[in-house]
Amino acid sequence: MENIYKNSDEVIQVIITDGTDPINPNDTSDIIISVYQQLEVIIQQWKLSDGTVSIFDAANGKVRVNLDRANTANLPEKRLYIEVAVEFANVDFEGGIQVEFGRDADDNTIPYIVLADLKNTVL
User: Fold this and answer.
1) Which long-range contacts (CB under 8 A, 24 or more apart) does 40-49 make?
2) Domain 2-119 has what CATH class?
3) Segment 89-111, tens digit of pLDDT
């Protein structure tokens, strides 16, 4: 686990897979990435559909987002978590959208993914 420092911009890179093989982000309806310290209190959120998620290696399922310094400046020094939701068009699901979250080796949904510890900037 790495540290993220308050008042610094951070690039977060994510690899989207089906558990084995990469998923090309262009084959999804949307990718939504959220960072939080407490569930229900999102610090920053990005969406592929609004252009805030950047694809940098589509064939290998790699995307990145920028965590803005202004969003961490006044937060307590605590662990940060990340949630990644991938949406696919699927008529068998309500609204025609199937949403998938991270899963473990036993195919259970992962309730949270530890991103990093938030620390004060060291000068």
Assistant:
1) 43/67, 43/71, 43/72, 43/75, 43/80, 44/68, 44/71
2) mainly beta
3) 888 888 888 888 777 667 666 66
**Whole-prediction pTM value?**
0.85
Contacts of 84 (CB under 8 A, 6+ apart): 14, 16, 31, 32, 33, 101, 102, 113
Running DSSP on this structure, what letter comes out for residue 122? P
Residue type, 88: F
Q: Where are the domains of the chain?
A: 2-119
Quickly tell me which residue has 């978590």 as its tokens.
81
Per residue in 37-78, pLDDT (tens digit) is 887 789 999 999 999 999 999 999 999 999 998 888 888 778
CA-CA distance, 96 to 116, in Å (whole number)?
34
Number of H helices, E strands in the chain: 0, 9
